[in-house]
Structure formats: structure tokens, C-alpha cells
Amino acid sequence: MMDNIWLASAVWIGLALxxxxxxxxxxxxxxxxxxxxxxxxxxxIGLPLTPWVNYLAxxxxxxxxxxxxxxxxxxxVRRNLGASFGIGFVSFLLPYLGCMLAARYxxxxxxxxxxxxxxxxxxxxxxxxxxxMVETGLNKTELGKIILAACFITDLxxxxxxxIVFASFTIWLLAFAAxxxxxxxxxxxxxxxFFAWVGQRVSExxxxxxxxxxxxxxxxxxxxxxxxxxxAYLIGMALAPAFQHDPxxxxxxxxIAFAVLTPFYFLKAGSLVEVNALVTGAGLIALFLGMKMAxxxxxxxxxxxxxxxxxxxxxxxxxxxxxxxxxxxxSALYGLTNHIIDQxxxxxxxxxxxxxxxxxxxxAQKWFLPKIAPAKQEV
Amino acid sequence: MFKRIVVANDxxxxxxxxLALACDIAKRDGTALHMISVxxxxxxxxxxxxxxxxxxxxxxxxxxxxxKARDIAKKKGVKLDAEVVxxxxxxxxxxxxxxxxADLLVVxxxxxxxxxxxxxxxxxxxxxxxxxxxxxxxx
Lengths: 379, 139
Fold this sequence. Notes:
The complex is a heterodimer.
Chain A: H1 5-26, H2 30-44, H3 51-70, H4 74-79, H5 81-106, H6 111-120, H7 126-136, H8 142-165, H9 171-198, H10 205-223, H11 229-245, H12 248-271, H13 275-280, H14 282-306, H15 311-320, H16 326-337, H17 343-367
Helix pairs in contact in A: 1-2, 1-12, 2-12, 3-11, 3-12, 5-6, 5-8, 5-14, 6-8, 6-16, 7-8, 8-11, 9-10, 9-11, 10-11, 14-15, 14-17, 15-17, 16-17
Chain B: E1 5-8, H1 13-29, E2 33-39, H2 48-75, E3 80-86, H3 89-99, E4 104-108, H4 114-119, H5 123-130, E5 135-138
Helix pairs in contact in B: 3-5
């Protein structure tokens, strides 16, 4: 049946639709559900990863990363560069080092595999933190903006590490870096000019223009041994101010991404989970999850004290900054796709990443909800 | 006789039943009525856009809920002070009840998903346990 491209498409989209419905029913992230449904699909019915599935999944990862970069509030990052960079960098560096060194010295993984472990578990979910900021009204305060900007810095650290650690250090890497920097400098001016010039049309020249840049730089990145998500995140950041001024274009791109691209990415990520490895690797999953949370605590909790959060709010913030999903799964899948880690290690890392999306959130909601009154909302 | 009544209204049928009963009690006791509605944002969202989308939906929903609630209160001759917050229903309602020194909290049936109820706990259960005053649950 899977040889028939349209029936295969129906199976994939059917799973994506089922994931959407389950996520609506449970009020949980659709990405998380897609990974879990993908794991069931991959292990129960078998989901062959054909070239077109891999293409759509890769395209989804690039677009997802680009849109994540486009969510960065650059004005806030610039205004609070010191504090947000400090918190964000610590939030990236300690889990990265902790999980990498645990993989290398406790488990005896070779350095490249240990690097993937460190990168996959270094992330912070900006979306989870943002939701809490809205609830508490902290998103309107300078403190909240600093924390949110710090999350972006953490993700930037993850993406930079993924793009640089495995790159081949040749003259072509310099050429790629130069091309990316030129685009990052030019796009904030050229992008809005081009969008205004072509206007909004059914043929979507704006989206084609952006995809051309993302594909070209992504191809360049891949050719030099880097990762296509690196330029995608940076280009997203460069266009963030323009997108925040006019959110219609990124909204149309999100519709495309979440309807037909990212489901393939998250379902594929889940389908590669090996059920046997879940059982045999349960201890490793707990180790990595524990290490990620412990190192986030070591890095972030003292900073919450420094910024005079009370104990409960400090714990709550630290737990939420221990969450992660999208960039963690992208990093683990990068390791598997490039044969840096095997499927068993991938299963361990992806499950630890999923655990980091669920466990800190549940603990935070169950035991550390802040006692401050929620902010009044304008409706 | 109650002096400060708080009603929680999530916009559901149960929420409006609670409001109607709270209005009757407020009218009987000649007191003002405070209404709290809680916008619930997604758990474990994967993108900021998911949060913004949910917030926008909730804003639209509670805009209508507030208008309808004010209309009901006006018809019953009760002064209604209404507020919308975002967050977790139980903790937000408890915080509001404490802030307004409520001596009665009236709530309708407010259900999350079965999985959420199992893991995090039921809203009504938590309100009964955490509220600083008597709780009247209306079904």
C-alpha cells in the first residue's frame, strides 16, 4: 500500500489529523502528540521513510526554525542584552556541558555522540515560558522580557552549536558564514522593500522569495557540513522586526508549515523511536532528563534569587526554563540522519527531550504555581 | 447573609447557571457581585503562535461572556464587577477570591480533559480544598 504515493500520503495526513484532534481534546501541544502518534505508527504499522517524506520533514524543520527565529523580539534582546545574554547563555551552556560530559564519561559515548546529547538537551521551550509570561502578566514587565529574551539566546546557542560543531572547517565554511552574515544584514531592509514592491498576491511571491533564501543558504550549509536550520533561525531573527510590524506574512507561512510540513517532521521523528530501546534505555532516559533539569537548576535558580524572585516563583521559572521540545528533537534527528548516533541512542535522547517537555511542566503546575494574582486581561 | 460574593464563570452552561444563582443570592443579601473568568492557555505549546492563537480565541470568547453576564446581572438588578485573567483556573480563582475577601465562592462545573484531571487534579476539587471561604458548586 505504501508504494502508492497517494495512499501513503493519506496515511501520513490521517495520522496528522488524528494528532490535531487529540491535541485539541487534551489541550496539549500538537507537536508532542505528533511525535507520540508517530512512535505508535512507526512501531505498529510501519511508516516507510521515502525520499518525499524525508523532503517534507526536512522542509518542515527548516520552516519551523525560521518561524521560531522570527518570533524573537530583537528590541527586547538589544535593550536587555547583558541580563538576557547572561541568563540565556548559562541556560544553554550548563545543560550542554553536563549532558555531553555525562554521555562521554559516564556512558562512554564517543565525543560526536556526546555532543549530540549535549546539544539536544540544552534547549528551553520559548513557547512554554511565553505562555506563563502572558498568564502572570510578566510579558509586559521588563523582567519578563529579560527572561523571554534569555530563552531566545538559549535556542540561539543550541542552533549555533548544531550548525558549527559538526561543520568542516574549510574556506567554504567561511564563505557560507559570509553569505549568511550578508543576508542577515541586508534582509531587514531588502525584505520589507521587496514585500511592499510585490504586494500580497495569490501566487505568494513573498513566500517564494523567503524560501529561495532559506533553501539556498540551507543547501550551502549542508554542503559545508553544517545544518540548514542554522541559517533558517538567523534569517528568521533578521526578519523578526519586519514580521512583528506586519504579522500577516508569517501567519500565512505558519499555516503552510503546520498544515502540511511540520506534521511530517514530528511524525517522522516519532516513527524512528524504537520501543525496545525505550525499555532497555529507561535508565539512560532518566539520567539525561535528570542531568538536564539539574544543570538548568544550577544555572538558573541562583539567577532568580539574584533578580529577587521569591522561592516559589524562582522554582517555577527554573522548571519552565528546563522545558524543551522542538530544537531538542531537531538536534537528535540531525544526529540520527547524519549517522552520528544510532537509533537506540536517538530513542533515548528523543524520549529525554519529550520528558523535558512534560515532567518540569507537570511539576511546576502541580507544586510550584506562583501565588501572585494572575494579571487582568483586556478582552 | 453574605457580604462579598465571587462567582467564577468559564462561559459554559454551568458557569452561567452559577452566575444566575449568585445574582439571586447577591440580590437577596443586597451585596455586589464579583465575577472572575479565566482564560486557559495551552499546556506545553510548541510555538508562541499557538499561545497567541489560543489567547485571541479566548479573548473573543470572554468578550461575549462578559457582555452576556453584564446583561444577566443588569436584568436581575445586581451590580456586577467582572474581570478576566489568564492562567490556571483553580489558582486564579482562589487568588481572586482572596484578593476580594470573598465570603462565598460560587462556581459552575468547569472540566478539563480527563487526562488533565487525572494528572493535575479536578478544578472543583482544588477550589473546595484551596478556597478561603465556603464554595457553592452549581450543576
